[in-house]
Amino acid sequence: MLFNSLEFVIFLLVVYVLYWFVFNKKLNPQNILLLAASYFFYACWNWHFLFLLAFSTFLDYSFGLIISKSKNHKKLFLRLGIFNNLAVLGFFKYYNFFADAAQTALSHAGFHVEPWVLNIILPVGISFYTFHGMSYFFDIYYGKIEPTRKFVEYAVFVCFFPLLVAGPIERGSHLLPQIKLKRKFSYQQSLEGLRLILWGYFLKVVIADTLSAIVNEIFSNYKTYPGSTLVLGAIYFSIQIYGDFCGYTNIAIGVAKLFGFELLSNFKYPYFSRNTAEFWRRWHISLSSWFRDYLYIPLGGARVSKLKAIRNTFIIFIVSGFWHGANWTFIVWGGIHALMFVPLLLSQKNRQFSSDVVAHDRKLPNLKELGQMLATFSLVTFAWIFFRAPSLAFAFDYIAHMCHGLTHATSNKIGLIYVAIPLLIDWQQRRSERTVLAFKNNYVRRGLYILLGICVLLYSVDNPSSFIYFQF
């Protein structure tokens, strides 16, 4: 069931009415309704994997209690809980990758081996809900939270349908307290949620899906286009993946607001970043902060020798890349970002833009800020080529063709309109990622609502397309 489908809209309306008008008197019935709705939502994808989700949820719930009660073996049970999650994730997502890699390594050593390759279907959302479970273990182990005694509460934390398939990756310390408290309807919160949903649909249906067709055409036939068109193809994909994933996140956060929940932010206008470090504080925040808190910092972070700090940087970026998919392209993508981050680390500029927003008190950036943003966007866009490519050979060949014919006339310029629109609107609202479309002038605001709504309806006539991050 896709967010951008009529089925989801009907599903959401039914759950919303039941939640606020039938089960609004008691907390436990509301949570049971959310859990049942979440399981139904997941079953619409593939009901066979519903049993895996339920079993994984129960196992993590049990391990949380065991870790909390254990006095002498906390670390042992923490490791067992993490191992269980990584084993499930590794089997479904990475088995064939490692089997192929082992075959290649052995063939280079002179051994011919036929690997046992499995025809495995990747359960949707598995990368996200396994990370929910592991963050829960870590938070209990480090004393940030007490484990919940009610299975339904923990299951809602893991399976809450707005975030189940593609995040944001929540923390027990942030979402569980909200699940345990009775929710009251808030008109302002609902209004903010509807704005986020509308903007999310516009980013996905109008911007991302339109650019997707152009990107697919350019990448599929890159050998027939001049280098200037291939540059545009990379730029278009940068905006496509942003519109697709940020659009999904806005819808998820907006839907959660309709039910009285505040999810973690996942995007803070990353393409206005002035260096790579700032970009990763603004792009897929829930994942990057997860790796920072549960991998980078335990390894020592930057508070170790320079050599170890560089090692830690490469570990976190390569693992982050590998998290996205079992392909060398994602590993190289992560490695490129590590290479871009290391100079900032060595010059101690990685925390340079950790709190402020570009041109916070001005309408336009100065020339230095503009240059920094363009340079960062260019580097990030170059790395996206590896993310988009089906193989390393494809990526390198695309780049080789891109470097030729840059002075030729460029086709597919129409996509620049779909690049400019979200960037211009984002620039106006860059100071807060939660107050989208909240323009002060009533006529401007309402007119924009109507215009965006009409665009979403007009562009939704075709079959809804899946979100990019559903494959992860």
Describe, in plain words, how this protein is organized in 3D:
The chain is mainly alpha-helical and 472 residues long. It has two domains: 6-184, no CATH class; 188-274 and 353-471, no CATH class. Helix content is 67%, strand content 0%. It has helices spanning 6-22, 27-46, 50-69, 74-108, 126-141, 151-159, 161-164, 172-180, 187-220, 227-258, 276-282, 285-296, 306-324, 328-346, 367-388, 392-402, 415-428, 442-459. Helix 12 (285-296) crosses helix 13. The two termini are 16 Å apart. The relative contact order is 0.11. The model has no long low-confidence stretch (mean pLDDT 89).
Describe how the helices and strands are arranged.
Elements: H1 6-22, H2 27-46, H3 50-69, H4 74-108, H5 126-141, H6 151-159, H7 161-164, H8 172-180, H9 187-220, H10 227-258, H11 276-282, H12 285-296, H13 306-324, H14 328-346, H15 367-388, H16 392-402, H17 415-428, H18 442-459
Helix pairs in contact: 1-2, 2-6, 3-4, 3-5, 3-6, 4-5, 6-8, 9-10, 9-17, 9-18, 10-15, 10-16, 10-17, 12-13, 13-14, 14-15
Fill in the keyword field for this structure:
0% strand, mainly alpha, 18 helices, 472 residues
Structural class: mainly alpha
Q: Percent range for helical residues?
A: 55-70%
Distance between the termini: 16 Å
What string gives the helices and strands in order? HHHHHHHHHHHHHHHHHH
Oligomer: single chain
Q: Please summarize the sheet with the most strands.
A: none
Counting DSSP H or I runs of 4 or more residues, the number of helices is 18
Q: In total, how many beta strands?
A: 0
Strand % is: under 5%
Q: Work out the radius of gyration.
A: 23 Å
Mean residue pLDDT: 89
List segments where confidence is low: pLDDT < 50 over at least 5 consecutive residues: none
Globally, the shape reads globular
Number of domains: 2
